[in-house]
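Field notebook, page 121. I keep forgetting to write these up properly, so this time I am using the form the group agreed on. The chain and the ligand, zinc ion, are recorded exactly as supplied. Prediction of the bound pose follows.
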Amino acid sequence: MQLKFYPGTNRIVCRWTEQVPFVMGEKRGTIEKVRSINLRVNKGGSLRSKDVQRHGSHPLFQAVQDFCQELRRCGVLQGEPEEQPCVHCGALTDVVPFYDPGRGRMVWACAEPDTCGHGRQ
Ligand SMILES: [Zn+2]
């Protein structure tokens, strides 16, 4: 599961994979499918009510709310947060907050994990 905040659009994107069963002729199995939801956060740090209605019963919703609280606490929503380097590679551009629900904390890392490390000097 990945929880990521896009400061440009004020959206939390929550992405995870699910095992989805399939049947194809005689063949049965499961495939891994990537699912995601995305929620708009307003400047005050609350989620847009439309998104709450839509996703409030989602199992990951609590983590989204905790993330929101962290974003507010760290001043990310109030504009100009301090520039943070990526915790993995130290890059300073395209770095966004991620939330680790297991540890209950926020970390800054490259927006696209695939390109993480490429910005290293
Ligand atoms: Zn990185």
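OBSERVATIONS:
- The first strand starts at residue 2 and ends at 6.
- The chain has one domain: 2-115.
FOLLOW-UP: compare against the apo run.
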